[in-house]
Write a structure and sequence with these properties.
Number of helices: 4
CATH class of the largest domain: Alpha Beta
Distance between the termini: 12 Å
Strand content: 15-25%
CATH architecture of the largest domain: 2-Layer Sandwich
Largest sheet: 4 strands, antiparallel
Number of domains: 2
Order of helices and strands: HEHEEHEH
Structural class: alpha+beta
Helix content: 40-55%
Radius of gyration: 28 Å
């Protein structure tokens, strides 16, 4: 009887180890296969033509130009403010986002203070390839221009007096954001192995207490 129980305990331990190592290997392989993404940024600056001073009620001076930029941003993005970041240079990829785009006001401040002193809008995009990211940046920039034009037409602003929207830089900056998949896989392997052996030891102790 004791021999039968001992064999059953050994089988339970072996099964626990096998399952634990299988799950650990799967997790490590999944992390190692995780690919990076492409992310890009583009800034849109809003300027008033010099000859139209006072002719555009939406952007009479620099302060109103900033306000107009914020109106355009809210019209596109909605009223919910974006998450506050420790640094405005943090990309969508660094926030853990793998696909999508975001429009926000340029903020010269940091985590605890805002500085919306320039009529700039920032577009961020992230995706699986460079073409996808550039397409998202171009699409959002086109939405900004169309929205700004619509708002000014509604106020009767003549075409020659409307805000000029310039891309900074002229061509969006797109780069590859790699992942630390190798390090994550190694950590997962070590942690999984440790948990597997701990579970196996717990099964063995329980089996010994049952046998006694």
């Amino acid at each position: 009887m004791l021999r039968h129980r001992g064999g059953r305990v050994r089988r339970a331990v072996v099964l626990t180890v096998a399952i634990g190592l299988l799950l650990t290997s799967g997790a490590a392989l999944a992390l190692r296969a995780d690919r990076g993404v492409y992310d890009g940024q583009l800034q849109l600056a809003m300027f008033l033509p010099p000859r139209s001073a006072g002719s555009n009620p939406l952007a009479v001076n620099s302060s109103q130009a900033v306000l107009f930029a914020s109106v355009v941003e809210r019209r596109i993005s909605g009223v919910r403010p974006p998450p506050r970041l420790t640094s405005q240079s943090i990309s969508l990829a660094e926030q853990g986002i793998r696909t999508g785009s975001q429009l926000r006001m340029y903020n010269g401040g940091g985590q605890w203070a805002n500085d919306f002193s320039r009529p700039y809008l920032r577009i961020d995009a992230v995706g699986e390839n460079e073409r996808e990211v550039r397409a998202q940046l171009d699409l959002m920039a086109d939405r900004v221009r169309r929205t700004a034009d619509q708002l000014q037409r509604q106020q009767g602003v003549r075409a020659r007096d409307r805000v000029i929207i310039a891309s900074l830089p002229n061509r969006p900056q797109v780069g590859y954001e790699g992942t630390r998949s190798g390090s994550a896989a190694a950590v997962a392997a070590l942690l999984g192995t440790a948990l597997t052996w701990a579970a196996a030891a717990a099964v063995a102790r329980r089996g010994r207490r049952t046998s006694s």
